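Protocol step 6 of 9: fold each sequence in the batch and record its C-alpha cells directly after the sequence line. For illustration, a two-sequence batch is reproduced in full.

Sequence one:
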Amino acid sequence: MSSPQTTITELLKHRSGIAWLLLAISVLAYPYAVSLSTPAVGLYHDDGIYLITAKAIASGDGYRLMNLPGEPAQTKYPPMFAFVLALVLRVTPEFPANTFWLKVVPLFFALIWLYLSYHLLRAMGLASVIAAACVFAVASSPAIIFLSTSLLSETLFAALAMGTILFLERTHKNDSFNWTSVAIAAGLAVAVVNTRMIGLSLIVAIPLWLWLCQRKKWAVWFSVLAGVLVTPWIWWVATHRGVGYYTVAPYTNWHIFSPNVAPTLYQKFQVVLGNMLMSGNSASMLWRAPDAAVPFMALLFGGVLAVGGLICIRQRSLLSCFVLTYVGIAICWVWPPYRFLAVILPVLLWIALQVLPAKILTSGARGVAFGIVLLSVPMLTESYRSAYHASQHGVFSFGMVEAEPWSDVQNVTEWVRNNTPPSCLIVANLDPLYHLYTGRKALRGFEANPFGLFYASPLATPPTGIRWQTDLVAPENQPLVVVRSPDPNFAESPHVDAEIEARIRSGQLHLVYESGKFQVFRPHLDGERISP
C-alpha cells in the first residue's frame, strides 16, 4: 500500500505535467491556428492531387485524376489519405468553403502522431520529461506545422507507423504474440503502405526484427498476411496505366538502381553522399543556423546520428530496424530526403540522445530536457514569423523563400473562370490547383529529371522539358492557356520559366493577363499548340 507522501508526490507530478502541457499548447496555439485558417490549397502540388482524388472517390468516380484529360487512374500515391479526405467531403462537399475542415484532418493525425511518439520514446527508455521535450521540439518546427495543416499524407503515415511499432514493441515486451496480434500488426503495416509507398520499409523491418527475436514462425506469418493484404494496391497499379508525373514511374526510376536516372557509379555516389549530407542537415528542421554554419551542423548532427544509430542497432529493437530500412530507402532515393525525414524527427532525436551516457539521461533528465527546449526556441521563433506572414498573405511558408501571395492565385483563377470556356485546357506546374479553382482540365506539361535538378551533375539533357504525350494532347481546336507562376519552392521553376520565355520570344505565346508574378498566356494563333 502506498504511503500518503507517495500519493501526494504522484498527484503533484500529475498536476505539474498538466500545467506544462497547457503551457506548451498555449505557446504553439498561434502558429498552428494561423496555418490552419489559411485558405491556400494546392501550392505544394501533392496536396492538390490528394484533394482531386478524394473528390473523385467521394463522388463515386473511383481513384482517378479528374484534372487530367482522359481522367486516368492515379497510380503514384496510395489511396489511404485521399480516402480519409473523401469521408470529410461526403459531409462537407462544397469546396473551397470546406477548406478548414479538410485541414483539420492532417492536424488530427499530427496530434495522434505526437502522442504516440511520446509513448514510443518512453517505451524506448527515455525519461518522461525528455520524451515530452522531444515532442515539443518537433511540434515547434515550422516544417511540422506546415505538414500538420496541409492536405498531405505525412501525419497520417507517421501516426500509423508509430502506432504499429509501439503496438509490436509492447506485444514483444509482454510476450503476448498470437494470431490476433500478428494479424493486427499486418493490417496496420499495410495501412502504412497504403498511405505512402515508403511504408514498405516497415513491411521489411517487422519480419527482420521478429526473426532476430527468434520469433521465426510469426515472421513468416506476418510476411504472408502482409503480402496478401497489400495485393489490392499492387493489382491496381499493375492494371492501370498512369500518366507522366502521376504514374508509378517514380518508384521504378527515381532511385540509384535505375539505369534511367543515375546511370554511372559516380552519379550514384553523388546521390548517396548528397542525401547523407542532407540527412545530417535534417536538424535544420528543428534548429535554425546561419548559412555559414549549415555544413558544419550537417556534419555534426549526421555524425551524432551515425554513432547513435550504431548504438541503437545493437539493441535489436523494431524501431532500430525500421529506421535502418526507412533511412536506407530515403538515401537511395533520387530526391532530397527532408520530407521523408520529417515524419521520423522524434525518432532521430531519440537516436541522437543515445550518444549521451545513460547516467545523464536518467539523473540529468531535466537538464537534457531543458537543453532540448532551449535549442528549439529559434525554430519556434521561425514558426511565429511564418505565422505572421501567413496572416498577411494567406499562405504558410517557412525558410528563406516566401510563397506567393494567395490573392494572386485567386486573381488568376478568377480570370480563367471568367475568360475561358469550360473546355479550356490549362498548362501549369500546379495543375491540380488550377483545376480545383476553375473546373478546367489541367496538366503539368513537363517532366522533371530529379537527378539533374538536385544533384548538380551535368547531363546530356536539361533537368526539365516540355514533353507532350499523345494520350494527353487535346484536340487541335481546344482552347489552351499557359500559366507561368513564381513557384519559388520548386527546383523546376527556373527551368520551366526559361522554356516558356523561349516560346514567348519565338512568338508562340502572348500575354493576356497578369497578377503579381503570375502570367497567363495564349498560343499566338487560335488552336495553335506548343511544340516540344
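Sequence two, same batch, same settings:
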Amino acid sequence: MSSQYIALLVLLFAPAAQAAQQLDSLSDSARPRGGRVVLSGAGFGPAQGTRQVRVAGLSAPVASWSDATISIRVPEAAPFGPVDVVVVDGGSQSNALPLEVSARPSFGRVRWRVPIEGGVRHRPAVAPDGSVYVNDTAGLLYALDADGALRWIFDTQGQGAEGPVAIAADGTLYVASDPLGAGVRIFAVNPDGSERWSISDPASQGMLAGPNVGPDGKIYAVTDFTGLGAVALSPSGQVVWNEPGFAEQGQFGQDIVFGAPGRLYFCLSGFFESRGLDGQGGFTRDVGAVQRQVSMGPNGNPVVADTNAGANRMRGFDTSGSIVWTYSPIPTSTLSSPDHGPNGDVFFVRNGSTVTALDSAGNLRWAILDDNSFDSPTPSQSVLHGPVVDPAGTRLVIGGSRGFGQAGVIEAFDVADGASLFELELPFSGGGRLIPGSRPRFSVAGDTAFVGVNVVAGNGPSWLYALDVASAPDPNAYCRAGVHSDGGSARIGHAGSLRVSANDFTLIADGAAGGRPGLFFYGTAAVDVPFGPGFRCAAGTTRRLNPPVQTSVGGLAQRRVDFTQPPASSGAGAIVAGVTRYFQLFFRDGSAAGFNLSDGLAVTFLP
C-alpha cells in the first residue's frame, strides 16, 4: 500500500478537530463577588459536561451553558481587582478576557442582593444555620450563606420553578421541576449540592402544591390532574400513598401546611382540601374559584380566603372543616393570602391596598389603606401582595408596587396598629421595573427578610433581596435615583468598614448608565430636591472624590475613600469618627440634561 494512499485514509477517517473555544466578550467589565457575568463567543460546546469557566483560576458557578453563551457567577473567593476569565475544556482553554472584581456591596437597608437567572415565584427557604435556598423559573436551585455568598447552583434540567424549596431536618433539600414536555420531577438534593435522588411523574402537567416536609419527615406534594395527585414520599423517594384527580388553572405553586392532629391542608381550583398524613379522613370545602395559600394558626386551625359567589370572605376553620368564624369586609373585590401572627392574629390585604388585621376570633383589629404617601413624591394607591409576619409577631413585610405600572416597593408595618415602619422603593433595571415576585421569608432571628424580585417589561436578571427589617441601618440609603437613558436607576452602597482607623471604606454604585464618566461626591447635609432628571441628595459643604471614575458596561462604579488624603483628611468636609457624611454619584448620561445621579447614602463613621 502506497504512502499516498495511507495518507489519504488518515485524512478521510481521522476524527475531526475540535472547534477552538473563542471568548469574544463579557456582559460587563466589572462585577462584585457573586455577580452575574454572561460570556459570549463560540465553540463552548452544547452543554457544560466537565467544562469549566475559571475566574482568577477558580471554577465559577454556572447558571446556563450553550455553544455561544455561558452565564456564570463570580466566585466568592475571587480576589479583588483585575482578573482573567477563561473557558476550559480538558487540557485546552480559550483566550482570556479581563474582569474587575469588587466586594459585594450593601445598599442601606438592603444587606445584600444576588442575581437569579430566571424569575422567582416562591418564598426562599431558610435553614437553622442561616443558609438560604431559592429556586427560579430556569429550573435552578441556589444555595447561599447568610451573608449572601453563593455556595452552589443545582440544575434540575427543567424549565420552571414548580413549587417552594423544602428543607428536611437532616439538611436535605426537596425541589420540583418541570422538564421539557410532559411530566414533573421532584429532586432530593444533598446539602453540598449533589443529587440524592429524583422521582418523575410523567403523566402530570406540573406541580400544584409542595413539595413540603411534614412533621413525620415524609415529603408531601400535589401534582396536576392525570398524575400522582396528592402524594406522600418517603425520605428515600418511595411513594407511600397517593390520591389522583386534582387540577388547577395553571401551576402557581403553594406551600402545603400541616396542623394537629396529623393533618395537611392545601387549596386548589377553589376547593379547600385536608387529608390525614396517611392520606385518609379528609374533607373538601368549596371556597370559590381562586387558588389561595392556606395559613395555619398556632391553635392548629387553618384560615383561608373564601371567594365563593363573589362574596370575598376570610374564614377560619377547625380541623374537621367546619367554619369557626367569617369576616366579610364590604366592599371587597380581592383578598390576598392570609398569614398568622404567633398569638393567632390574622393579616391579609383586601382590594390590593388595604392592610387588614383580625384577632384570633375573626374580629377586625385595624385596617390601613396604604396610599404610599410615606417618602413618595407622587402618592398613589398601592398594589400589595400577601403579608408575612416576622417570628416575634412585631412587624409585617409586604411586597408590591406603588401602583399599577409604577415602581416596585417592599413595605413593613407594625402589627400593633398598622403604622408604617419603612418603605423600600426598588430601582428600575434594564428598561423595566423590579417588582417583588415572592412573599417574604424571615431569617431564624427575624431581623432579615428575604424577598424574590423580578424584572417586569425589561431585560436583566431577577434578584433575591436580603433586607434589614429590625433597625434603621447605618449606612442608610435615602433620597431617590432618577431613571437614566439606559432604562435603569443607580443605587449607591458601600463595602468595607465604617471605622476611620481601618481606612478600607469603599463606595460602590450599581445600575448607572454603562460606559460613562462619573464622579463620587459627598456633603455635610442631606437634601432631597429635583436636579435635572434626578435628585440631589448631598448638600452643605460638598467635596469631590477625585479622580473621576468610568462606569462599567453594566453600570458599576467604585471609589475607595482614603481617610488619610484630602478631602477626607482635613478641612470643613473632613471625615472623622462621629461625623455623618452624605454620598452620591454624578454621571454623564444620554438624557436631554446630559447627566444623572444615584440615590444618596448617609454614613456615620466610627473611630
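Proceed to step 7 once all outputs are recorded. Observation for sequence two: The CA atoms of residues 380 and 398 lie 17 Å apart.
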